[in-house]
User: What shape does this take?
Amino acid sequence: MSVRFTVIIIHRNGFDRLKAAIDSIKEASSTLEEIFIVDNASSDDSIDRISSFYPDVNVILNEFNSGYGHAANQGIKKGAGDYFLICNNDIVVPKNIFDELESVFKKDANAGIVSGQQTNINGERIRTSSSKPSLLSEFDGIGRVSHSKDPKTISQVGIIRGACLGVRRKMIDNIGAYDEDFFFYFEDTEWCIRAWRNGWKVILNPNIEIAHIGGSSSSEFYKESRIEFYRSRMIFWKKIYPLHISILLHLWNIPKLFLDFLFYLVAIIITFGLNDRLKKKMQDRAVVILWLIFMKPVTWGLPNKN
Assistant: This one.
């Protein structure tokens, strides 16, 4: 029997959220689906426990944290589906997800990446898509990408937040899988851009509501995750824009980090250190500035990388 969707769950630690994700996927799936967990060197017993609940779920074990894109590509290489559902371990999918995704793919032969509307754990809709990034939008504080409104009907969008993506195999055969130069962050943005640059559509289907806890993979290592964010952002600039534009973006954004740090420092002093949000913003800038001062060490960032 042919496989309709290969589900790939990227996992590192957290039994409860992984089980909730698989429970929802199992409830939504039929005999036409297969499930892979790609484990990025979990330090807990979540994989052993999940395997006892679901012995039919395929598990790929990595000896180190290989990054999101690399792990997803491992599942893609193993999967037999006509389509893929590539997702975080902190999502809960609705029962209609596979039929709704397949419907969009079948109606539009150029649909390459399709996802649903994300919600928080309270069922409130959260930003899931944005317009295509432009040169101006990369200049922080001047022309930010519009994130404020997700379409209310099935529509093309520029970028989809990559917590749960439906992907057509034929698109991957055409443009390639995730770019593994991105360890964490921006791999989904680059893939969406590569898709529409090659004639494939990126589509949001709001009839699918996907609950997303968000931040579970990096909240324990907030400072380290900020380094990964800026590292990936700089890689993104180099890949998407000509060299002179990439240099221009560095010349604007790196000094802006220092100005932001000074702004938040002054704001903390004025508010007597009582505002936790301001302190976190300053911490964000401080750790990235140190990373830049020390010439962007590759060993800094999220733990247990190769």
